[in-house]
């Protein structure tokens, strides 16, 4: 167990209306990859600039008539910390599995197009690949404990990039041959 790991406990209570504030807070906390332990009470490891982001949320909540509480936790029992890490990894596991499924579909689409004689739109595939890259970056940013699927996801993304590059070369070569007729 890592000896110096610290955590933030963040709790909040916001007015019922407007609901946009609750949604904004929830989206910000989701982007940080927090673990909800109760309604409006969450934990996150103390890494990077998480403290600054939570402080900004604290200010936002106070400015809109809500209540917020932030505490730094220096140590959990080893058992509790192991359980927390397991729960964080379960959240990431779902995200990685969903992402890998999207990546698999992307690969299948490229395979299907590579084996057809129809016109293939490389631009659309490049945009889809960029979307996959953005999604993976977000997941990796929330992956505080180096989930085992992160390595598989990175390898899958690299394979998709290589496949798209190969397909683009083939399409451009084919277009050049057809224009030369």
Descriptive account of the structure:
This protein has 181 residues and is α+β, with helices and mostly antiparallel strands. 65% of the residues lie in helices and 13% in strands. It is built from five helices and four strands; from the N terminus they run βαββαβααα. It has helices at 19-32, 50-63, 78-114, 122-142, 149-179; strands at 7-13, 35-38, 41-45, 67-73. It has a four-stranded antiparallel beta sheet with strand order 2-3-1-4. The longest helix is centred in the middle third of the chain and has 37 residues, at 78-114. The mean pLDDT is 88.
Question: What's the structural blueprint in terms of helices and strands?
Answer:
Blueprint: E1 7-13, H1 19-32, E2 35-38, E3 41-45, H2 50-63, E4 67-73, H3 78-114, H4 122-142, H5 149-179
Antiparallel strand pairs: 1-3, 1-4, 2-3
Helix pairs in contact: 1-2, 3-4, 3-5, 4-5
* Derived structural class: alpha+beta
Count of runs of 4 or more consecutive helical residues: 5
* Widest beta sheet: strand line-up: 2-3-1-4
Average pLDDT figure: 88
- Beta-strand fraction estimate: 5-15%
What is the subunit arrangement here?
single chain
Q: What is the chain-wise order of helices and strands?
A: EHEEHEHHH
The dominant shape is elongated
The total count of strands amounts to: 4
Major β-sheet annotation: 4 strands, antiparallel
Rg over alpha carbons = 22 Å
Taking pLDDT < 50 over at least 5 consecutive residues as the criterion, the unreliable ranges are none
Helicity range of the residues?
A: 55-70%
Distance between the termini: 67 Å
């Amino acid at each position: 167990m890592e000896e110096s790991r610290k955590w933030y406990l963040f709790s909040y209570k916001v007015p019922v209306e407007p609901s946009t504030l609750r949604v904004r807070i929830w989206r910000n906390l989701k982007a940080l990859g927090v673990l909800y332990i109760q309604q409006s009470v969450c934990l996150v490891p103390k890494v990077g600039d998480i403290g600054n982001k939570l402080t900004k949320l604290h200010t936002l909540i106070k400015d809109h008539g809500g209540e917020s509480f932030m505490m730094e936790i220096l140590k959990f029992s080893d058992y509790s910390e192991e359980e927390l890490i397991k729960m964080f990894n379960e959240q990431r596991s779902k995200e990685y599995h969903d992402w890998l499924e999207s990546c698999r579909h992307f690969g299948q689409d490229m395979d299907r197009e590579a084996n057809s004689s129809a016109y293939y739109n490389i631009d659309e595939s490049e945009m889809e690949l960029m979307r996959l890259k953005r999604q993976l970056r977000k997941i990796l940013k929330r992956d505080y404990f180096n989930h085992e699927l992160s390595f598989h996801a990175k390898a899958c993304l690299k394979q998709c990039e290589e496949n798209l590059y190969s397909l683009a070369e083939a399409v451009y070569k084919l277009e050049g041959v057809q224009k030369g007729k």
